[in-house]
């Protein structure tokens, strides 16, 4: 998993950033940021202010004075760090704190587009409270046309996002913090409620169809969709059937070979002939995280493949437009 941070600051040039960082024991060497206290690889891109820095931080988490200061900064750095945020929160926060002393004013996580003034972001990430980490990284978006709420940014924790009908953000937030705090093994067909007084809802894991698969906000671990109140849990197998290789990989290869979109019958044939291994649910979860993405549900193979395929189509369309 990668964490991408955008940090605008007062240094006007890359050379000025390099000098300021050197005072903090950090060296900017080409596209690499290094230091004795940096336990991971950090790739860096220097970006001049294109006139949109303020717009990038136009959020309720940043007040007018803070936004004005960020908008006036001459340049910034984009950091790409191969970490799962909550597992290395302290060294990430320490690094960002040093960038603040070097002139950084704000931090935005590109996987959710959520930004804060730099000191506040450091405070949240340094906290031992999972709720603070959630606040630092995750936005909840409203789809007025669909009448739903969906979180965005849980993939910085290698976790799925969640989607629920409008008006129930409290359940969505509790569920996501529960994922982060308890690291449960959740499976499609189970139910969830934040407390004993609230009716349980059935949850189903789906691919993230909100963004093309190459967009930073796309969650490769998918989305938990909440059903209506009173949903009943389905009986779960003792072991999880894990396809080797993943169904989504086999379907992608099949489409490339065919040179066209697969039909429903062809998708169902791939699912039927797929090779799978029976694993304990926790082991299946570990494999998914090491792989970096979730597979489609074989019982909903056609419907979920259509969601994946639409994201690929959006990416391909955007690539063609760029090439023109």
Topology:
Elements: E1 3-9, H1 14-22, E2 26-29, E3 32-35, E4 42-48, H2 53-56, H3 64-71, E5 75-81, H4 89-101, E6 106-109, E7 114-117, H5 118-126, H6 130-137, E8 139-143, E9 148-152, E10 161-165, H7 169-182, E11 191-192, E12 201-206, E13 223-229, E14 240-243, H8 247-258, H9 264-273, E15 276-279, H10 281-291, H11 301-323
Parallel strand pairs: 10-13
Antiparallel strand pairs: 1-5, 1-6, 2-3, 3-4, 4-5, 6-7, 8-9, 9-10, 11-12, 12-13, 14-15
The H-and-E topology, N to C, reads as: EHEEEHHEHEEHHEEEHEEEEHHEHH
Largest sheet: 7 strands, antiparallel
CATH class of the largest domain: Alpha Beta
Q: Any low-confidence stretches, pLDDT <50, length ≥5?
A: 317-324
- Percent helix, as a range, is 25-40%
Strand order of the largest sheet: 2-3-4-5-1-6-7
Feature tags:
324 residues, alpha+beta, Cell Division Protein Zipa, Chain: A, 3 domains, 6-stranded mixed sheet, disordered C terminus
Gist?
The protein has helices spanning 14-22, 53-56, 64-71, 89-101, 118-126, 130-137, 169-182, 247-258, 264-273, 281-291, 301-323, and strands at 3-9, 26-29, 32-35, 42-48, 75-81, 106-109, 114-117, 139-143, 148-152, 161-165, 191-192, 201-206, 223-229, 240-243, 276-279. It has 324 residues and is an alpha+beta fold.
